[in-house]
Amino acid sequence: MNESLSVLVVDDDWPMAKTLVDVLKLKGFKAEAACSGPGALEMVGSDQFDCVLTDVKMPVVNGVELLRSIKAGRPHLPVLLMTAYAPGDLVHEGLREGAIASFTKPLDIDLLVWFLSELSGPRAIVIVDEDSPSWGTAEKALEQRGFAVKTVREPGGLMQALKPRGQVVFLGPKLNGCSGLELLKQIRKQYETLPVVLTFDGQEEASSKVERARRLTADACLRKPFETDELLEILADIRRRELAALLRRRPGTLVRQND
């Protein structure tokens, strides 16, 4: 659903920025342009963009400085870099600080459109936990941010609720006699790369269970009670790693090496 994705293009080369905006609109996306870092920050603060694509080398505020400012105000907003130069220290700095990837100019439009289509794909949350009260506020917050939330209250319904892509699973410490670790083992037998976050009660002996969860390739561990911001930060990190992995072997892009 490209029409639901709104992209802010930032480049001090105004004709290039406008051309890229026109191309994205022709491809079905919403897009606007800014010709400076300060102008982009003003637009990000007043509009609900879903993604920012920014040039790295710009006067006054460069792309990495813009990235830092965006992350300070909207930490979950995906930021992509683009540069006409060979990747240097500035690009690597931006990737370390949370940019999903860096695209080489002239841009491969087909690659960019494909990537933005992946970014705009549907996202679902599967909550597997018998402790429904602890999820009330978080569940509402996730739905308000466009996530489709599904709950599983019986172990037998877990595998039927899962799909190989487009989901993140939050596993509670137990579900009708089954531990979260046992359920994680079941999931990994069928879905090796499905993102899974294991949650623990605050009073549990969590350290050993966290280590076991890591060995079973849980993507993250979260101790209850948790804040909604913690949840969103984990989801943003998982999404960034997923998207970076999609780009890893694509020519003309650079992603963090440890993603």
Rough outline? elongated
| Radius of gyration over all CA atoms, rounded | 20 Å
Topology-level CATH name of the largest domain: Rossmann fold
Q: Going across the biggest sheet, name each strand in turn.
A: 2-1-3-4-5-13
How many domains? 2
Q: How many DSSP E strands?
A: 13
First and last CA, distance: 27 Å
Structural class based on helices, strands and sheet pairing = alpha/beta
In percent, how helical is the residue content? 40-55%
Oligomer: single chain
Assess the beta-strand content as a share of residues.
15-25%
Architecture (CATH level 2) name of the largest domain: 3-Layer(aba) Sandwich
Which stretches are poorly predicted, pLDDT < 50 over at least 5 residues?
none
CATH class of the largest domain: Alpha Beta
Please provide the ordered H/E string of secondary-structure elements. EHEHEHEHEHEHEHEEEHEHEHE
The profile of the biggest β sheet is: 6 strands, mixed
| Number of discrete helical segments | 10
| Overall average residue pLDDT | 86
Q: Mind telling me the CATH superfamily name of the largest domain?
A: Response regulator
Features:
elongated, 259 residues, alpha/beta, Rossmann fold, six-stranded mixed β-sheet, 2 domains, five-stranded parallel β-sheet, single chain
Question: What is shown here, in short?
Answer:
The protein has 10 helices and 13 strands. The protein has 259 residues and is α/β, with parallel strands linked by helices. Strand 1 (6-10), helix 1 and strand 2 (30-34) form a beta-alpha-beta unit.
